[in-house]
Amino acid sequence: xxxxxxxxxxxxxSTFTYILAAPGAVDAAIxxxxxxxxERDLAHLERLGLRLTHVFETHAHADHVTSAGRLRAHTGAxxxxxxxCGIAPAEIQLQDGDxxxxxxxxxxxxxxxxxxxxxSMCYLWRGNLFSGDTLLIGGCGRTDFQGGSAxxxxxxxxxxxxxLDAATRVWPGHDYKGQSVSTIGWERAHNARLAGRExxxxxxxMAALDLPRPGLMDVAVPANRNLGLAHSx
Amino acid sequence: xxxxxxxxxxxxxSTFTYILAAPGAVDAAIxxxxxxxxERDLAHLERLGLRLTHVFETHAHADHVTSAGRLRAHTGAxxxxxxxCGIAPAEIQLQDGDxxxxxxxxxxxxxxxxxxxxxSMCYLWRGNLFSGDTLLIGGCGRTDFQGGSAxxxxxxxxxxxxxLDAATRVWPGHDYKGQSVSTIGWERAHNARLAGRExxxxxxxMAALDLPRPGLMDVAVPANRNLGLAHSx
Lengths: 233, 233
Hints:
The structure is a homodimer.
Chain A: E1 6-10, E2 15-20, E3 27-31, H1 38-47, E4 51-56, H2 68-75, E5 78-82, E6 92-94, E7 99-103, E8 106-112, E9 121-125, E10 128-130, E11 135-136, E12 139-140, H3 150-161, E13 169-171, E14 182-183, H4 184-190, H5 199-207, H6 217-225
Parallel strand pairs in A: 3-4, 4-5, 5-6, 10-13
Antiparallel strand pairs in A: 1-2, 2-3, 7-8, 8-9, 9-10, 11-12, 13-14
Helix pairs in contact in A: 3-5
């Protein structure tokens, strides 16, 4: 049965964090927690009576620092990270096709979606796709650093994500317009960058974006490769 | 079974809007939609394949204008408003204890909770309380206009809301700290204004707040009494 996650927002970096829990269950997972909201996120778990068992990262973020390491230390949750993202301290190094049980009967399916970064992954749970920076509502993540590749992103989205059931809800890693959720069916038909576009056109479009380097990149990426803990890995 | 709603946010007034839909259902309800997000909210309904049947207002808002009238005109949804809020054009004038069916088998229970305004109401659906400005996460709404009353708010919260099941999720009308959701159990034990406080203490605390008059009040309240449409009721 399709269940909505709990969606939390960081206004500074426009990042979404998600808490996943089944009705009546105590064990929960969190995806892409943000360091400055460590206390807020713990408070949500406490208020909801949830025990954190797994922390998932969709990739090594360049625009904010994760709280995965602090959450692990505080709750005993396992840190789960894409194997290709250089997040060495995560005890679960995820591979494409993995299925991770995080509570009684709950399972999260791992989909390797290179493109935004070489190691980026998306997660599927109960009809919900947590699409990180791979697929955004009406758009997609940039592809110009950390092994990013517009061709790879195109292949990941059109070959892996757009083949999911049309009703699959898409919960992105960011939104900059006050939007919360989309669906695979809508993105496949209407995504401004990817719907109905040829691969070569998409690569040209991404190459022409000429985006500034993220201000936090030199701090955030090394920090996130250490789960947000002190940078001396 | 407890299901999370879809939560949308207006950063300008820190207002939450909620879309309520059961898994697999087409018909949906919306609570407290914000005028400037009319297009955004329609886009969410379209993406999710939902048909709007009911628009609920928790009260006549003083800090933002509703899109209830425009949503009704665009979708054919019924406008549902607390009977004591002077929202005359709403075809369903809600009374305490009403139960409104809004989709196959879905029902929303109406709880009159005077205090923030005299007519304010909260709504209960599948273990979720939509608490408007009556109960906020760790706090409560102000009680100094539109028939507001600190004593009434105390009685509404302690007598009606805090008697709900502890696991009931509390989805507030606003949050100013990046928080999304709480529970009745947590608020009953920890709410900074209401937990363990005597009625007279609470009334004194609210009287001492000395809050400025909302800047939008003279525009928003008359507009909202007309479902956000042109003010000539």
